[in-house]
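Assess the record.
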Amino acid sequence: MYIKPLFFVTLLLVTQLVFNFAAAQDKIFPVPGGNEKQLFFLQRTPNTNTIVCELNYKEGVVDKEDPIHVFWIRYQEKGQTEDLSYIQRKFAYGVKTRQIGENKYELNFVSYKKYKMYLMQSSDKQFHVYTTINKKPAILTRIYIEIKGGTFWSPNIEYVEVTGIDPTTLLPIKERLKI
């Protein structure tokens, strides 16, 4: 009677390890944790500094005007957190939000408006960011950007890899996108 739950947990752990190993590319990227407000994080090849997107609360409830707080974890330095600079917020990693219902928001990065994400409350009353991965709905957990050259204002993005969890099976799901 305990075989099915044990098998499911083991399968989930092995799958997560495989995905994490494959996602690490040539670098070992730290996985931010310990933040109950964290929704997903973004990493890219120039270094291991990580961008975290978390719920933004105001007076104990999600701030309807600005529901997402985006910031750095500067692993390359001392691991401190730091807000995005004005240029980063307005031209690269800032997140635009638009309320489309009660506790439901459409999101996109300012640098790539085509990729839509949705901040929504699930049936367990927890907020998640949902997107489409492999043509299926998924809870977004990580975005990885492989950059090969280019300039500060126009990096050459080889691919973007989005990782999440299938909300039905709770199994990891991943897709590599050419941008």
Remarks:
- Helices lie at 3-23, 86-91.
- The first strand starts at residue 38 and ends at 44.
- The two ends are 47 Å apart (CA to CA).
